[in-house]
Design a protein that fits this description.
This protein is an alpha+beta fold. The strands form two sheets. Strands 3-2-1-4-5 form a five-stranded antiparallel sheet. It has helices at 42-45, 77-81, 85-101, 109-120, 128-142, 174-177, 200-219, 228-237; strands at 2-15, 19-26, 30-36, 53-59, 68-75, 148-152, 161-164, 170-173, 185-186. Strand 7 and strand 8 (170-173) form a beta hairpin.
């Protein structure tokens, strides 16, 4: 079997003396790994830095096999990230979360496109956390655990929604949630109204919510935890 695709480098690990096994987020084939012969050498290792966009040619006897990959460089986002600590932290967060949360070989074209947008906007360090929180919310949607903020989980009404249930991910109204408010997440207003600009505290609240549901539904069931790169990103944001 042979296929070609665009891929964002997520991780690499050495295999033998000169080869590496690299993991990519691809446009059409999801999170995919493959053996790259000579990948540990100077010529190819520069292209195999996390965040770089490459054109891939995957070859394998069967689709479920590891396969071998030939690479051609498309765009070096890692070189740009190396010029600034915030940009590097942002890039590492994106790659680590995609590696940890995405299932193997499941197409996620929307997440690929959103990731590429984040990489092209690495220079917008002040705006980047706001865009990245949309990426994590989109990741929850892609994996089938998206938030439902259309109406109150308890009453069905669609007004005065100020909480999110940590069990269901659904919105809860002020009246219905008041007796349980200490157990509910606050619902940042910008998630309901696109025109509202989130504050830093709003963003931190969203990241607490997405971490809760990603851990509960995606990571914990397979024995994983939120990556340290993402924890460092939150600490820097604070």
């Amino acid at each position: 079997m042979i296929w070609t695709d665009l891929g964002i480098v997520l991780t690499t690990r050495k295999h033998g003396e000169s080869a590496v096994i690299a993991t990519f987020l691809t446009r059409e084939h999801g999170r995919t790994s493959g053996l790259i012969r000579g990948g540990a050498g100077k010529k190819l290792s520069a292209h195999l830095q996390p965040g770089n966009l490459l054109r891939l040619e995957w070859r394998g006897r069967l689709e479920e096999h590891l396969g071998t990959i030939l690479i051609e460089p498309e765009e070096s986002f890692s070189a740009n990230a190396m010029t600034n600590r915030d940009k590097l932290a942002n890039l590492n967060t994106l790659c680590a979360m995609a590696e940890a949360c995405l299932p193997e070989r499941q197409p996620v074209e929307g997440i690929f496109g959103a990731s590429l947008i984040l990489l092209t906007m690495l220079n917008e360090t002040r705006l980047w956390p706001e865009i990245y929180q949309k990426w994590e919310l989109g990741l929850l949607n892609e994996l089938g655990y998206g938030l439902d903020l259309s109406s109150c989980a308890a009453t069905g009404q669609n007004g005065d929604l100020i909480y999110i249930s940590p069990k269901t991910g659904r919105a809860v109204s002020r009246h219905a949630g008041e007796p349980f408010k200490n157990k509910l997440f606050p619902l940042p207003y910008h998630l309901l109204v696109d025109e509202v600009k989130p504050t830093k505290s709003d963003l931190l609240c969203v990241f607490e919510i997405t971490e809760h549901f990603l851990t509960r539904h995606v990571l914990a069931p397979v024995g994983k935890k939120i990556p340290m790169a993402r924890k460092r990103f939150i600490d820097r944001l604070k």
